[in-house]
Amino acid sequence: MSGPGSGKTTLLVRSIDDLAARMPVAVIEGDQETSVDAERIRATGAAALQVNTGNGCHLDARMIDRALGELAPPPGAVLFIENVGNLVCPAAFDLGERARRAAVRHRRRR
User: Fold this and answer.
1) Is residue 104 part of a domain?
2) What is the pTM of this model?
C-alpha cells in the first residue's frame, strides 16, 4: 500500500520477476476505476484479478474473500494484494494479510 504513483505496481512487477521461477504468484489489484495495474501484472505471466471499489477508498476483507474465490491461486502460491493508491484508508483495514509493505518514492535532493 502507498500513495498514487509511488511505485506499488513497479515493485510488484519486480517481485514477480524475482519469484516466478520458484513459485506461482497471484495478485489482487485494488483500484477505484481502472484495470491498468492488473494488465501490467498479467503481462508478467502472473495471475491477476482486478477489484474496482468505485467510490470506496480501500479494499475490505469481504472483497478479498470474493476475489480469492475467483482467482483461486494454486497451493504454494504467494498472493500479493495491491490496495487502492491511498495511505489513509487502507492502513486501517485488516485484510488477513501476513505482512504489509509500503512503496515510498524518494525525492532527489538538488
Assistant:
1) no
2) 0.80
Which of 54, 4, 52, 56 has its CA nearest to residue 28?
A: 52
**Any domain includes 2:** no
Q: Phi/psi of residue 49, each to 5°? A: -125, 130
Q: Are 3 and 102 in contact (CB under 8 A)?
A: no
Confidence of residue 102 (pLDDT cuts 50, 70, 90): low
The pair phi, psi for residue 29, each rounded to 5°, is -105, 120
Rounded CA gap, 28 and 81, in Å? Answer: 5
Q: Residue 30's beta-bridge partner residues?
A: 51
Residue pair 3/87 in contact by the 8 Å Cβ criterion = yes
